[in-house]
């Protein structure tokens, strides 16, 4: 039981790290502001990439919530 | 029947439903204690908790402010999906630790946590009062934004049959009525219905916009033709502002008093965990949708029409309705759904404001039914004090959001840091709070909204954290830590 909790906590920390990385790369700070913009899925490429990052954050964050060990159970 | 007449009928029907829900909630009351009135007896289940969190988080700001801001700022406002999601990520830092302590100690207001955490510290009560005052001010600002949005939506859906001023006053009275009668139960149940209405309404509007505009790619091409700069990759300052906005709104929103009180109101930790696991997807179904609506507006609205940013959403709905037939009824439903969402946020603010004013500022007894009554009176007073400001409409909804968040983030040390770092002391935290608030308020008065793209509230938080942490490290170690 304790081992499972430790493994869960470790996995959650890894998910938080992935979420942080996704947030950092969702902002196009690494691209020149006069670079050419392509249209991807009907949106400018940097916008489509940001949406993809945020959709991934949603999945990882939901997983992180499900791995959370609630300290008190339902009454 | 004209659009305005259908609007009046739909609004009337919706208000009747609210009255019925309030009466059912009143009959479900177990007692007159603040815990029962303000936290629904701490018995909210997964579905109602999720929907009330959802309807509370997505308000007049999201429905009117965000499309308006996306229309103004262009595609860089895609950051809104990021900051709304950051809220549910940052709740990991507060909810799992705070909820068990709150359940164990019977917390009703956020100030109860501060008093508990710093219970052996002489400055604990003054810190709790200062935080209570700051949160009440932020709530009053939030309430003002909702009242302003309620007036706009009412006058638009009824085509001016009910003017803006009457919309503000009439709906404020209605909120006061059902909130006083049914407390958190009425608020949570109406939130649940309001959340569903908003979700489906926005989806329907987006489908119409996409269909009518020939798909997303066509809309983007038209935006490129009308305003080419809207598609450009943001410059360095806008990128910094993007990070700053995610941090400001993420941190500020987890400290919404009404959100903290929903953590207290959850039936259990597991209920809360499941609600957040679902909530994390809602920025994709709501914020992204309203942002895309704002982008579509760039292509649809002629700049010469001079549509104000907060009027973008009503303008589009008006266009939708004018295409006639079933679309007119659909547009009315979306209008009422949006109005419902705005009211659901206003009612949560009002409920929270009343409890904070009596509990954290006046320090009244949590178990006394008279505390509940006093809270209702104070909430009513603040509500009507806000009405004249809402009628004037001097600030945009987006600016009101930023101002509120710049104040709320100053509470970060007392919650996020205090939950995770036991050496934090009350005096340095109080001094940090004063300094951070002074910087945020001073910058707002001086008109310095951002410095190199960073919000002045975040700069204030930096100074605030420095004082709180360094001051606590320097203080002699005393037994003032929480369990």
How many helical elements of chain A?
2
**N- to C-terminal distance of chain B:** 64 Å
Helix amount of chain B: over 70%
Strand percentage of chain A lies at 5-15%
Number of strands of chain A: 2
What's the Cα radius of gyration of chain A? 17 Å
Stretches with pLDDT under 50, minimum 5 residues of chain B: 479-483
Strand count of chain B: 2
Q: What is the structural class of chain A?
A: mainly alpha
Taking the sheet with the most strands of chain A, its summary is: 2 strands, antiparallel
Characterize the overall form of chain B: globular
Q: What CATH first level of chain B would be assigned? A: Mainly Alpha
Oligomer: heterodimer
How does this model look, in words?
The complex is a heterodimer of chains A (75) and B (483). With 75 residues, chain A is mainly alpha-helical. Chain A has one domain. Chain A is built from 2 helices and 2 strands; from the N terminus they run H-E-E-H. A two-stranded antiparallel ribbon of chain A has the order 1-2. In chain A, helix 1 packs antiparallel against helix 2. Chain B is 77% helix and 1% strand. Chain B has helices at residues 3-27, 34-39, 46-57, 60-73, 79-90, 95-105, 110-117, 124-157, 164-212, 216-226, 236-254, 257-265, 269-279, 282-300, 312-322, 326-361, 369-392, 397-408, 412-420, 426-446, 456-474, and strands at residues 450-451, 454-455. In chain B, strand 1 (450-451) and strand 2 form a beta hairpin. In chain B, helix 8 (124-157) crosses helix 9 and helix 10 (216-226) crosses helix 14 (282-300). Classes of the chains: A mainly alpha (75), B mainly alpha (483). At the A-B interface, helix 1, strand 2 and helix 2 of A face helix 5, helix 6, helix 10, helix 11 and helix 13 of B.
């Amino acid at each position: 039981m304790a081992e499972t909790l430790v493994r869960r906590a470790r996995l959650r920390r890894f998910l938080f790290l992935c979420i942080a990385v996704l947030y950092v790369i969702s902002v196009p700070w690494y691209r020149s502001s006069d670079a050419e913009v392509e249209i991807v899925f009907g949106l400018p490429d940097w916008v489509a990439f940001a949406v993809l990052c945020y959709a991934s954050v949603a999945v990882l964050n939901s997983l992180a919530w499900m791995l959370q060990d609630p300290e008190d159970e339902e009454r | 029947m004209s659009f305005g007449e259908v609007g009046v009928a739909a609004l009337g029907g919706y208000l009747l439903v609210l009255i019925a829900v309030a009466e059912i909630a009143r009959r479900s009351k177990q007692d007159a204690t603040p815990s029962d009135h303000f936290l629904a007896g701490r018995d909210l289940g997964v579905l109602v908790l999720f929907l009330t969190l959802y309807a509370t988080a997505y308000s007049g700001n999201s429905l009117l402010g965000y499309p308006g801001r996306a229309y103004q700022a262009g595609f860089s406002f895609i950051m809104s999906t990021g900051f709304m999601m950051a809220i549910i990520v940052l709740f990991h830092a507060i909810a799992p630790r705070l909820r068990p302590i709150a359940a164990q100690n019977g917390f009703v207001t956020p100030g109860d946590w501060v008093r508990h955490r710093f219970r052996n510290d002489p400055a604990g009560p003054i810190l709790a009062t200062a935080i209570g005052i700051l949160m009440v001010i932020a709530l009053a600002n939030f309430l003002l934004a909702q009242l302003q949005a309620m007036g706009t939506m009412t006058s638009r859906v009824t085509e001016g049959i009910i003017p803006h001023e009457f919309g503000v006053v009439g709906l404020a009275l209605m909120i006061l009525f059902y909130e006083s009668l049914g407390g958190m139960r009425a608020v949570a149940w109406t939130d649940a219905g309001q959340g569903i209405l908003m979700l489906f309404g926005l989806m329907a509007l987006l489908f119409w916009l996409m269909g009518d505009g020939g798909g997303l790619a066509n809309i983007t091409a038209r935006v490129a033709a009308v305003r080419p700069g809207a598609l450009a990759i943001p410059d360095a300052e806008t990128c910094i502002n993007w990070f700053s906005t995610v941090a400001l709104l993420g941190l500020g929103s987890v400290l919404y008093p009404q959100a903290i009180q929903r953590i207290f109101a959850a039936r259990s930790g597991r209920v809360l965990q499941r609600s957040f696991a679902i909530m994390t997807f809602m920025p994709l179904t709501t914020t992204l949708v309203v942002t895309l609506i704002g982008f579509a507006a760039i292509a649809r609205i002629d700049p010469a029409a001079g549509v104000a940013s907060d009027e973008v959403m009503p303008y589009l709905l008006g266009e939708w309705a004018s295409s006639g037939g079933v679309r007119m009824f659909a547009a009315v439903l979306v209008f009422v759904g949006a109005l419902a969402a705005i009211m659901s946020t206003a009612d949560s603010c009002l409920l929270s404001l009343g409890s904070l004013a009596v509990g954290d500022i006046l320090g009244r007894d949590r178990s006394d039914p008279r505390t509940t009554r006093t809270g209702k009176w104070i909430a009513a007073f603040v509500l009507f004090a806000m009405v004249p400001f809402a009628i004037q409409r001097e600030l945009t909804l987006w600016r009101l959001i930023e101002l509120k968040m710049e104040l709320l983030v100053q509470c970060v040390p007392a919650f996020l840091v205090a939950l995770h770092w036991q050496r934090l002391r009350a005096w340095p935290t109080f001094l940090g709070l004063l300094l951070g608030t002074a910087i945020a308020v001073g910058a707002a008065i001086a008109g310095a909204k951002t410095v190199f793209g960073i919000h002045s509230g975040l700069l204030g938080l930096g100074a605030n954290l420095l004082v709180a942490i360094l001051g606590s490290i320097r203080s002699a170690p005393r037994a003032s830590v929480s369990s």
